[in-house]
Amino acid sequence: MAPFSTRGPRKQASMKKILLGFLAFITLAAFTALSGLDDVIGALRAGNASELAKYIDDNVEITLPEKSDRYSRAQATAVLQDFFNNRGVKSFELKHKGDNGGSQFAIGTLQTRAGAFRTTVYMTTRNGRQLVREIRFQ
Asked: Among the CATH numbers 3.40.525.10, 3.10.450.50, 3.90.870.10, 3.40.50.1700, which is that of 9-137?
């Protein structure tokens, strides 16, 4: 008798359930990661630094036209709120988004009363959450 002849329909059904469960988990994890990026894009569209702060890592690099530095989450919230308030956000047009090795990014144009800024957001996974690690307004 062949060594695998003991596999019956029950074991095959069990393996199918495990495989389907695993695939569902992977799909949900991918969707959750992208929804974090979508929430960040929504916060940019609204010029809402408080909403954006929910996705900022403990430390984040922010590049503005006049300065570039690394900030704590609280400092970053204040810097972004000041940037949004002083320029008056009108809209954010997404040009491209994607992922690279578990990290997500988005590139777009932030339209303000003071002009347009090419905006790049980089997110990385930490403790199972997608967090912003860098934002550039150029």
From this structure: 3.10.450.50
